[in-house]
Amino acid sequence: MDAGDIGWWGVPIAIVGGAIRVSTPFLFVSLGETITERSGRINLGLEGTLVFGAMTAYAVTVVTLSPWLGVLAAMAAGTLFGLFHGWICKFPRVNDIAIGIALMLLGTGLAFFFGKPFIQPSAPDLPAISLGWWSDIPQVRAALQINVLFLIGAALALFLWWAFRTTRIGLVLRVVGDSSDAARAMGLNPDTVRLLATAAGGALAAIGGAYLTLYYPGSWNEGVSSGQGLMAVALVIFARWNPLGCFAAALLFGGAGALGPALQSVGVTQGYYLFYAAPYVLTLVVMILTSSPGRALAGAPGELTVAK
After folding, report:
1. How far apart are CA 148 and CA 134, in angstroms?
2. Number of other CB atoms surrounding residue 112 within 10 Å
3. Does residue 71 lie within any of the structural domains?
4. Which domain, by its residues, includes 182?
């Protein structure tokens, strides 16, 4: 088991760079789910929204040769999925989780059906900023390519953290998420607020899908997601519905996902593939460690199904 040309010192660089690349879809999906869950609704259908957004972004980019138009198209598709989910869930005796699972299957099925003609064509990538200019080693430069969407996601996490704490919209979300009765007493319509929050969550999740097909791994195929939409829901609980916590947790999950490729890059050829399971193992460990049978989850909105 010999180290590659860049040496073992390149493993931390590869993990950091890989964490940024891998974490971006987690970041957008978790931020979207944070908005939705803050309003008192859980959306397990974001996996389907992520996959459909990935297909939509890639298809539109292939046709228009503009990756940013692809991102906008993905956002529109994700918004429609969110509005559909929110509209169904407003009816009495409708279970958020069951509807989410149904829409997850619908989204993935539609993506596979409409996306078949776009498996072979190539699309231009989203732009990236090189932070490895100081190195002459190609592997280091490749590892430190930072996509613009990651920077947008980081700024969005900071903005949402501020908005939840200080703006009227943030107050409305918190009130609706904690108590529907209190929201109605204030003259708010919980169904409308949750409908808009679910739509916003779907739009952000679809951006995460656009990143998958337009940057990393940068192609459309039926296995592009690998369950990242579902893992992001666990990530939100781990982050305690805090956007800055989502940013940190996304990097943690991204680092776990980058561990296998980082070891492979330095010549580890046996057993490295076991580290590809690290994000799934981490999801299970996080859920076990943050669970408590004796009390509600700290920071959980009172109306959220998972907190009851």
Report:
1. 20
2. 15
3. yes
4. 10-290
The predicted-structure confidence for 109-148, as pLDDT tens digits, reads as follows 999 999 999 998 899 999 998 877 766 766 667 677 899 9
Condensed to tens digits (0 to 9), the pLDDT of residues 43-72 reads: 999 999 999 999 999 999 999 999 999 999
Question: Within 13 Å and on the Cβ side, how many CA atoms surround 71?
Answer: 19
Instruction: Name the average pLDDT for the chain.
Output: 86
More confident residue, 34 or 293: 34
CATH number at residue 245: 1.10.3470
Q: Is residue 201 part of a domain?
A: yes
Residue 4 lies in a domain: no
Count of the separate structural domains present in the chain: 1
Average pLDDT over residues 185-193: 94
Assess if residue 17 is contained within a domain: yes
